[in-house]
């Protein structure tokens, strides 16, 4: 009978520990979901920033090319150049392979 009481106490302690662990698992699951969502949002933000950086880099290279080529640029009259036209026109260090990056 005494041994049964000791075993019942151990069972009670183990059941309490089990409940605590289940609560921690549930809490960790919630945190994991939140972190996954935040990570996805940050990945989207980084991708947008990368695209903006590429666009600004292309614009910068185009302006440098125009400047080096002695082309007169009128801010009012010059139409925005497409990236395709820019790649066809660019020469020197700037190559389409360097300007484009591979998406994951």
Automatic annotation (TrEMBL):
Coiled-coil regions listed: 4-62
Q: Where is the composition biased (Low complexity)?
A: 72-83
Which terms does the record give in the GO molecular function aspect? microtubule binding
Taxonomic superkingdom:
Eukaryota
Q: Does the keyword Cell inner membrane apply?
A: no
* Segments of this protein annotated with the region Disordered: 71-104
Question: Is Coiled coil among the key words of this record?
Answer: yes
Keywords for this protein: Coiled coil
| InterPro entries with a match to the protein in the record | MTUS1/CCDC69
Q: Name one GO cellular component term.
A: cytoplasm
Indicate what this protein is called per its UniProt record: MTUS2 protein
Organism field: Asarcornis scutulata
Q: Which gene encodes it?
A: Mtus2
